[in-house]
Structures are given as C-alpha cells and as structure tokens.
Design a protein that fits this description.
about 60 residues; about 0% strand
C-alpha cells in the first residue's frame, strides 16, 4: 500500500499572506454586518421621504 508523507513548513511570507487574508476577511465581515445594513436603512429612509414628498405634490 502506498504511504504518503507530508511535510508542512511555515515561512514568513506565508504568515504575512495569511495575515493579509485574515485582515481582508475581517474588513469584509465588518462591512457586511455593520456598514451595509446602516447604509441600506439610510437609503430606505431617503426613499420613503421622497415618496412622501412626491405624494404631497400630486395631491395639490
């Protein structure tokens, strides 16, 4: 039966690359869970305000 042997080494470049990936993923997670809902709430409020103003103009 063939046997496979793996040898893993951590280099400073790979540590830096993984750190950059983790930082990028953390930033994306922050944007998607914190900033995006807030921005969508602001957009929704502006759209409701625009609909209200346009509705009042049409009544007159």
């Amino acid at each position: 039966m063939p046997v496979s042997a793996f040898s893993f080494e951590v280099t400073p470049e790979s540590v830096g690359d993984l750190g950059d990936r983790a930082a990028s993923a953390g930033l994306m997670l922050t944007l998607l869970t914190g900033i995006a809902p807030l921005a969508l709430t602001v957009v929704a409020a502006v759209l409701v305000l625009v609909a209200f103003v346009l509705g009042r103009r049409r009544r007159r």
